[in-house]
Amino acid sequence: MSSGHKTVAGFCTVLLSLVLVITGLAMRWPAWGWGTAAALLAVAVAVVPRLTAPAVDPLSAEFTTEPDRPTDPPERREQRVTDAVLPSAAEDYDFRFSATVRWCPQEAPKGSAPFSPSGVAIGAVLERAREITETCRPQRSSLAQHRLVGELAVMLPDPGGRLLVMAEEVTLTLTEPDTARLRKLSTVRKDEALWSHERRYEQDRRDYLGKDVLQDTGTAVVWWLAKNEDQIHKAVGDLGVLAQLSAAANDRDVPERYAHWVPAQPEGHQAHGPAPDGDAPHSNHPLEVPGAVGPGTPPVNAFERLLDALGVPAGHEDAGVLARALHEGAVQVGREGAIESVRHRFDPATVEVPGLDTAPEVQEEGSGQEGRPGS
């Protein structure tokens, strides 16, 4: 009998005793009536517990010959995978894959061998992830991660049909050294593309000036008139300058039909050839004037008049291109010294840096790289 049953039986006995005592006092029972009541109370005390006791379960544990078996622990159906190596679309750049793999058992096919659910589930998830990552560029690791999150969030059967498998909490990263290398390669590619475009732009400008604008005097005049349609008389006055410039750009003499348009050389300048031995060097080009002795002296000469005729300001980048073209032509015919001051005056690449003794050599080398044909 349990404690609850005993409590109920005691309560009923006390209640019945009180009823009998109150009834006997109210009805003034004789002595034999109290004896009968006591006997009835004793019978009730013996019968009530039996009447309130629950029915006995014949299959309860106390009637079995074996003890109770412990409850089996719940089956584990998830496992964490960390830093699994997966290939990318670039050789030698691998992703690091991490995720929580979850699976649900299916009815195993007939005749299938025993297997580890966790191993089968992880292998199936990694294979699904590999099919995606091997098509992704390592620079796009965040995009590949979002694709994996969507693809692996669906429960799909493994190749053997034994489990339904999915993955959550997916992360996909690259190692720090690989990230740094890719960042440097990207910077180099951008700089190389920019330099290539700038070089091609410079080549196009030189080809345009040397092979088109300054091809001959007539072409130079037409080009000048196209930019200055209302200055026909000025174009006629500058025919000699245009003839000299086109002749120098193409490494040839000024045509005879334009010779009378060429300005007369200043007194003291030689017409042809280098200065004799023992004499001070003099300019032998008609673009030079007395007083233009170096890059620091701003010459007011025929070249400035040409720039003015072409509508090109002295500080404009086109002035430097024309000066380099003229200088290259003079170098090929051995008359570099005659127009050295022109190049120093109008080519921004020859500006000297104060305090550096080697500045002219460095500038000369840089100018050669930018202006060398075919670079």
Automatic annotation (TrEMBL):
Per UniProt, the ranges with Basic and acidic residues bias are 66-81
Keywords, in A-Z order: Membrane, Transmembrane, Transmembrane helix
Residue stretches spanning the membrane: 7-26
- The record's region (Disordered) falls at 59-82, 266-288, 350-375
Full protein name: Uncharacterized protein
Native source organism of the sequence: Streptomyces qinglanensis
